[in-house]
Amino acid sequence: MKPIVAIVGRPNVGKSTLFNRFTGGRTAIVEDTPGVTRDRLYRDAEWKNVVFTVIDTGGIEINTDDSMLTRVKQQAQIAMEEADVILFVVDGKTGITVDDQEVSQLLRKTQKEVLLVVNKVEDYSDPSITYDFYQLGLGEPIPISASHGMNTGDLLDKLVELFPDNMEEPYDPDVIKIAVTGRPNVGKSSLVNVILGQERVIVSNIPGTTRDAIDSPFKRNNQEYVIIDTAGMRRRGKIEEPTERYSVIRALRSIERCDVALMVIDASQGVTEQDKKIAGYIHEQGKGCILVINKWDLVEKDDKTLHKFEKQIRSELLFMQYAPIIFVSALTKQRVPKILEIVDFVAEQHNHRVGTSVLNQVIIEATQLNPPPTDKGKRLKILYTTQVSVKPPTFILFVNEPEILHFSYKRFLENKIREAFGFEGTPIRFIIRKRAE
Predict the structure, then answer these.
(1) Are strands 223-227 and 142-143 parallel, antiparallel or unpaired?
(2) Residue-wise over 258-281: b if at least 16 C-beta within 10 A, else e?
(3) Of 79, 93, 111, 428, which sits 20 to 30 A from 219 (CA to CA)?
(4) Taking the chain, what is the end-to-end CA distance rounded to the nearest angstrom?
């Protein structure tokens, strides 16, 4: 598992600038994939070969009727519960404010690691600039300038040192780990109850009322599973009326830990922007995915309804054409037993490995059917292909001119690989390497 870092603080102290400084230059895997939202609260960063996920709470919008202080405190509360390390950003030019003091009180009570970051400092010859911030009781203030990148390397050094030593998953590799994800109130808890066959999770029609923050192991037909704790299902202490954008943050850890994600969508509402954000994260993390359309009993149907709905889902989630769709009702238990059958299949596909010789034969036939592109008289040549890993299936393409390999041609190759080998329910990754002819 990757450590999660949350950046919290008042508006306009430079949280988003610091977020961009940490993550800038790292192109998201699906940056050019149609349908994946680019409005992100999270992105992976890397420092000294350590990869971690950064959450920008500055992108979260709370009920605008709330006071600024309440909004900042809500962000800090989420960060305390979801992050491994919290960066509390304050403004070195403005100095300490009442809001800063309130949030620091919250952060001091948590058991999480907190770094106090004094932003907008440009004169490092005068250490007294940060002296006042010792009053916040969060240890030594770290002066930086996020906009200019000054001292951010030292900040990252300290940050990486605070990451937990053991982030390993506690379960045997043969155990299939399932995350039940989705927006609040789409029926995740009810679905878990039906799958487990017992009332293991409190169900309410109020979003965010689930109280059990535990994993649920179970066994079926000699296969062991665990429904991992889905943070989006948990009741959040003292957070009042958080917007649905929080559910993206709450889903991060559970998605990262799983083998197969059940992306639960409310049939009565269809695919929302929030659904796209969560589905996009599942895709970016390379997890197996099943689109579970819940509350199907509430939809008025005719003989064309299911086909039309499936077509609409495929249109909204263009980047997830590989994911199987199942229409269920947790209330009536309609088709819910079939979910685990599909989970077994997707988990196998996610872990599927193909032979190099047959793989290269498929690629040769694909390039004969649709010749690689040319650029300025040079033609792309795919010299050799091999699968290097699973979960998700990942392939190295050795080519003569990597810059000529356009996204659309990679998509064509992916489709041909899927036609030949399946890989249903799992994304496919390509690594492009230059090799002399």
Answers:
(1) unpaired
(2) bbbbbbbbbbeeebbebbbbbbbb
(3) 428
(4) 39
Identify the three-state secondary structure at position 76: helix
- CA dist., res. 216 & res. 348, Å (int): 21
Q: HEC string of 368-380?
A: HHCCCCEECCEEC
Rounded CA separation 59/361 (Å): 47
Q: Specify the DSSP class assigned to residue 138.
A: S
Q: Yes or no: say if 108 and 138 are a contact pair by the CB < 8 Å rule.
A: yes
Alpha-carbon distances of 13 from 99, 145, 199, rounded to whole Å? 12, 11, 45
How far apart are alpha carbons 183 and 104 in whole angstroms? 30
Contact 226, 216 (CB under 8 A): yes
Torsion angle, CA of 161/165/169/172, rounded to 10 degrees?
150
Residues 6+ apart with CB under 8 A from 276: 35, 36, 37, 316, 317
In whole angstroms, give the CA distance from residue 258 to residue 242: 25
CA–CA separation, 410 and 137 (whole Å)? 53
d(CA 106, CA 134): 16
Residues in the chain: 437
pLDDT tens, residue order, the chain (437 aa)? 789 999 988 888 888 889 989 987 443 333 445 555 455 678 889 999 999 989 887 655 554 455 666 766 676 677 677 788 999 999 999 999 988 898 898 888 888 899 999 999 988 877 888 899 999 999 999 999 998 999 999 999 999 999 988 777 778 889 999 999 988 889 898 899 899 886 555 555 544 434 334 688 888 899 999 998 654 444 444 444 445 556 667 678 889 889 999 999 999 999 998 899 889 989 999 999 999 999 999 998 888 999 999 999 999 999 999 999 999 999 999 999 999 999 999 999 999 999 999 999 999 999 999 999 998 888 999 999 999 999 999 999 999 999 999 889 999 999 999 999 999 999 999 999 998 77
Residue 384 sits at φ, ψ, to 5 deg, of -165, 145
Q: Is the distance from CB of 232 to CB of 250 less than 8 angstroms?
A: yes
CB 345 within 8 A of CB 423: no
- Three-state secondary-structure class, residue 253: helix
Secondary structure (3-state) at 214: coil
Rounded to a whole number of angstroms, the CA Rg of the chain reads 24
